[in-house]
Write a structure and sequence with these properties.
175 residues, mainly alpha, globular
């Protein structure tokens, strides 16, 4: 398969996994609409060009170019990314609290990306491991960070299905 076909397959697999995770939490429509911007020309063309299959093409674009136009485009249109909620003024970054529906989508995005890239290697410890190795560097409002860490810890301790059932029944219990 060429890069184009492989990229489409990976994006669709990721979207399917996020949809399944969001549906488990009782929010299938958010899951269906997740990451639609990946099919825009700005994101799609660059992502095919830098496709590798085992990691985000955005990382490869940044290594090659020093930046990624796909990432600039993506993070500005998808409020489940922490960067969407950062106010940057006069050299200062101020993280804003992420509303629950986007925080939930971020959690499901992490699960969907993990399953899409890791396949059978994904387990309930994967989200907290990814967070500790990479995502903790992101700018988060303290309340958003605390919730995110608590949810990932609960997924590791109790399993994704248990946490998803709790969310479906009770919503945000990590207040």
């Amino acid at each position: 398969m060429n890069k184009l076909t492989k990229h489409i397959k990976l994006v669709c697999n990721h979207k399917r996994e996020v949809f399944k995770a969001m549906a488990m939490c009782g929010h299938p429509v958010r899951g269906l609409l997740h990451d639609m911007s990946k099919f825009s020309p700005t994101e799609f063309i660059e992502s095919v060009k830098y496709f590798q299959g085992d990691r985000s093409p955005i990382e490869a674009a940044k290594e090659a170019q020093g930046y990624s136009m796909a990432w600039f485009h993506h993070r500005g249109r998808n409020p489940h990314h922490s960067q969407y909620w950062c106010d940057i003024s006069f050299g200062e970054v101020t993280p804003c609290e992420m509303p629950w529906k986007y925080l939930l989508e971020l959690v499901c995005d992490t699960i969907g990306a993990g399953k899409a890239y890791m396949g059978d290697k994904w387990d309930n410890g994967s989200p907290i491991k990814y967070y500790r190795e990479r995502d903790y560097k992101s700018f988060y409002h303290p309340k958003t960070r605390a919730k995110l860490e608590a949810i990932y810890t609960d997924i590791d301790r109790f399993g994704w299905k248990s946490v998803a059932n709790t969310i479906k029944r009770n919503g945000d219990v990590w207040q």
